[in-house]
User: Which sequence fits this backbone?
């Protein structure tokens, strides 16, 4: 019996990729011959998540490169093409493949042969992918990636930054510092994580025995290790929030109150969202009150 060849299309932001991992895991349980079309950074995340699939790299630039990618897809003659990106760009891919491929295509695009039509505009991203895959007989279980026992220490992860493009999503760093000082007073450690986009925050982080500044020193493997042992994570709307949520670990998410926060909120067990129209209006007292439920 011939094994179906499956192509998954997923690039986009790092946070978007983390939110797709449950869906990718569900696809993997059914199909063994899988290729992923993603960016180089996307492929790194899939590899680190133990999805060691065949790769097509999409740098998402230029007509010539796009043409080459489409030719690779057509020549590999996939039986099933699953568009988890559901963007304008990938809709164009499905339009062209409609005429030059016999593949079954699944996505939200008008040109998908197994098209998912979103009814609820506030639908969570994960729910949308789950409903989309159900059209081709794939059942996605919530937080179905990892199963493990945790050894929780007296520590909390703090995610005070965001990408430079998402600067408006940041809760005031001084508020985070107040929360860290509160935790220190209770002899609970704070592990502050972030990347190059948060470098300017690094010098503002207090120095004491309970506060550990890991900005620019927190690759995903370190974040995973810390999160597994932490009571909870307090985070802005960032890729780190989505990563920790994908591990089914609790998060207190600080977000702007809009449709985006509804469709991108953490879905991990015991997580909560504190949302205001202006993120600056979230008070320190509200965060500490929510934190008290965990400590």
Assistant:
């Amino acid at each position: 019996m011939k094994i179906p060849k499956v192509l998954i299309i997923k690039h986009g932001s790092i946070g978007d990729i983390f939110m797709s991992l449950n869906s990718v895991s569900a696809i993997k349980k059914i199909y063994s011959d899988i290729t992923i079309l993603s960016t180089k950074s996307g492929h790194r995340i899939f590899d680190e998540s133990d999805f060691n699939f065949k790769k097509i790299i999409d740098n998402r630039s230029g007509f010539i490169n796009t043409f080459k990618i489409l030719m690779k897809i057509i020549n590999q003659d996939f039986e099933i093409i699953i568009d988890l990106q559901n963007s304008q760009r990938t809709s164009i891919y499905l339009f062209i493949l409609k005429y030059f491929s016999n593949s079954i295509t699944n996505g939200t695009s008008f040109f998908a042969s197994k098209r998912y039509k979103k009814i609820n505009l506030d639908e969570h991203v994960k729910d949308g992918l789950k409903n989309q895959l159900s059209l081709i007989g794939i059942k996605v279980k919530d937080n179905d990636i990892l199963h493990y026992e945790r050894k929780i220490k007296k520590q909390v992860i703090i995610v005070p930054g965001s990408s430079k493009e998402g600067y408006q999503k940041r809760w005031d760093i001084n508020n985070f510092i107040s929360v860290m000082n509160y935790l220190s007073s209770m002899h609970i450690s704070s592990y502050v994580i972030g990347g190059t986009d948060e470098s300017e925050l690094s010098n503002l982080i207090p120095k004491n025995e309970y506060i550990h500044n890991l900005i620019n020193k927190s690759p995903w493997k370190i974040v995973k290790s810390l999160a597994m042992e932490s009571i909870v994570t307090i985070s802005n709307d960032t890729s780190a929030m989505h990563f920790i949520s994908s591990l089914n670990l609790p998060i207190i998410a600080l977000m702007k109150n809009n449709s985006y926060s509804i469709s991108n909120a953490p879905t991990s067990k015991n997580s909560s969202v504190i949302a205001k129209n202006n993120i600056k209006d979230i008070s320190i007292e509200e965060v500490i009150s929510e934190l008290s439920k965990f400590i």
